[in-house]
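Lecture notes, part 5. Sequence design as translation. It can be helpful to think of inverse folding as translation between two languages: the language of shapes and the language of residues. The source text, in structure tokens, appears below.
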């Protein structure tokens, strides 16, 4: 079956919409919203988006081999977004492990992946992307330093083109990733890593562990170098901060 793209006006969240649909979903199905009334990030945090100033959408993808087939998915999506931005003339987008896109050290976009399915069964993934197109930093406080595409592409930045390029990249990369996994993308991801070889702090629960960011492995885990050697962190419960 073919994937389809729908553009909705006002909904809670494009992730929720794709999760709760009664329709049969095909890989690559995409929902875009003009306005989300309850856009969210990880850990129940909010995603804020002024009307018309941001790109908020989600794509459905099934991994037949379940959770293990998805390892590194949020990193792959970051690679897809950076490639798409390059196609739009933005060369400077970088990544922050595990799920953010940065532009000149500030947050440009975030990725929220939600999964349905039992361990050992196929995993139905909802890949949510929020990207600032025109979200002036002096008008909106989103809780951390942020930037938008109009900073580099000017006020006439074409939101539809950006959406089309990202969807195009995801439709290209997801089938390949499903077959070959994340390994072929490690190097490209590491080239795009804004924090490469820098001292960072990893927050997990109440703990804060400082170390040098030494990139990622094929499962998408962060490799942190501390006095004890290299420690691996998986995406779920962990946040990375500049030192
Ligand atoms: P991490 O993902 O590393 O844990 P994070 O602070 O980016 O850290 P997320 O839950 O991934 O946390 O994303 C939600 C966060 O995104 C919110 O806490 C808020 O600070 C930020 N945020 C909300 N809206 C925007 C926006 N339009 N642009 C940039 N950042 C935003
Ligand atoms: C993050 O920075 O943690 C992720 C933010 C993800 C926001 C997008 S907007 C489209 C989709 N729908 C949601 O409710 N969230 C994601």
């Amino acid at each position: 079956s073919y994937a389809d793209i729908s553009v909705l006006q006002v909904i809670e969240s494009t992730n929720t919409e794709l999760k709760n649909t009664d329709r049969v979903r095909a890989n690559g199905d995409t929902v875009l919203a003009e306005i989300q009334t309850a856009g969210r990030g990880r850990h129940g945090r909010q995603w804020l988006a002024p009307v018309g100033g941001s790109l908020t959408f989600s794509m459905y993808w099934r991994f037949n081999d379940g959770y293990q087939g998805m390892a590194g998915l949020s990193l792959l999506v970051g690679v897809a977004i950076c490639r798409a931005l390059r196609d739009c003339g933005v060369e400077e987008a970088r990544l922050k492990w595990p799920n953010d896109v940065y532009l000149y050290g500030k947050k440009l976009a975030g990725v929220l992946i939600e999964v349905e399915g039992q361990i050992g069964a196929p995993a139905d993934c909802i890949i949510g992307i929020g990207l600032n197109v025109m979200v002036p930093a002096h008008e909106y406080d989103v809780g951390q330093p942020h930037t938008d595409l109009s900073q580099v592409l000017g006020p006439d930045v074409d939101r539809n083109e950006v959406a089309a390029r990202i969807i195009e990249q995801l439709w290209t990369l997801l089938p390949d990733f499903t077959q070959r996994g994340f390994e072929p993308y490690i190097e490209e991801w590491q080239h795009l890593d804004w924090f490469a070889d820098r001292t960072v702090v990893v927050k997990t629960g109440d703990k804060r562990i400082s170390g040098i960011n030494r990139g990622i492995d094929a499962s998408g885990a962060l490799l942190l170098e501390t006095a004890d050697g290299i420690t691996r962190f998986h995406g779920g419960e962990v946040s990375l901060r500049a030192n």
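The translated text above is only one of many valid answers, since several sequences can fold into similar shapes. The chain is about 25% helix and 35% strand.
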